[in-house]
Amino acid sequence: MTETTSARIAADLRSRIAAGEFGPGDRVPSTRDLTRRWGVAMATATRALSLLQDEGVLRSVRGVGTVVAARPAGTRPARRRATASPARDDVVRAAIEVADAEGLATLSMRRIAAELDIPTMSLYQHVAGKDELIVLMIDRAFGEQPLPAEPAPDWRAALEIAARLEWAAFRRHPWLAPAMSLTRPQPVPSALAYTEWVLGALDERGLDPITAFTVHVMLFSHVRGMAVNLESEAQAEAESGLTADEWMDAHVGAITALAEGAEFPFVTRMTGLDFDLDLDALFELGLRCLLDGLRGVLP
């Protein structure tokens, strides 16, 4: 039933695009708009948009939402690359481009095959499946900007270098932080290089291996913990058409009323202030506090 409804929604949008209601680059109704209009679940609306994205009729634009692709509706989409036998490197690069542009949730073997203009089954000559592909994507993303060849002058500088390079990688690829696991880490060579860098810097301070590794996990947890907000915010902005600041402006009245009604005076005071939620600034503040605190741990 869900598949049929998704197909009906996709067909309706396709006909509206063909009729000229939406032109190339125009934003089409978001998943939330579709759920309200059709009375369906979010997953059904998302599937409808995904069907049209797979056809090349629609594409996702970060900060804008889902828009009509710049080609006549109903024609075959132009591929960015076409090769009868892509290398594994081509598969990984195409997957990263899709995840960067549209989010990790849209990534599928079928979607990547469409980008490469090859049969879906051809991908399995290079990767066993989506799980292995994501590991290869993480490895490439972390390896784009390698750690310096020369050691850092001291432990604090080493940890700052590692943390800021990780943050930069997460910034370039918003899907990267959610794709990585803290409790079940994937076997990623380029990520292990960061572990080695931090452990090497802490080993010179005479820390036992368990304490040094705990410090590394804590540092990584701070960086990743801030970065997991990047993709969810990009998706929310694409779906709603509102930036985080615009969303807060639209909802601050309800939050203020709740705080006042529940007698939360300090929260009420904050709702009247001009606070800018800057993730980069929060990352830097947290990093500074974390490293300052380690002065009492490191011998």
UniProtKB/TrEMBL annotation:
Q: Where does this protein bind DNA?
A: 108-127
GO terms for molecular function, please? DNA binding; DNA-binding transcription factor activity
Family matches, as PROSITE patterns: HTH_GNTR, HTH_TETR_2
- Keyword Transcription included in the entry's annotation: yes
State a single Pfam family of this protein. GntR
Q: Sorted alphabetically, which keywords does the UniProt record give?
A: DNA-binding, Transcription, Transcription regulation
Entry annotated with the keyword Transcription regulation? yes
The taxonomic lineage of its organism, from the top, reads:
Bacteria, Bacillati, Actinomycetota, Actinomycetes, Pseudonocardiales
What Gene3D superfamilies does the annotation carry?
A: Homeodomain-like (1.10.10.60), Tetracycline Repressor, domain 2 (1.10.357.10), Winged helix-like DNA-binding domain superfamily/Winged helix DNA-binding domain (1.10.10.10)
Annotated HTH tetR-type domain ranges read: 85-145
Q: What is this protein called?
A: TetR family transcriptional regulator
Provide the GO biological process annotations.
negative regulation of DNA-templated transcription
Give the species this sequence originates from: Pseudonocardia cypriaca
List residues of the HTH gntR-type domain: 3-71
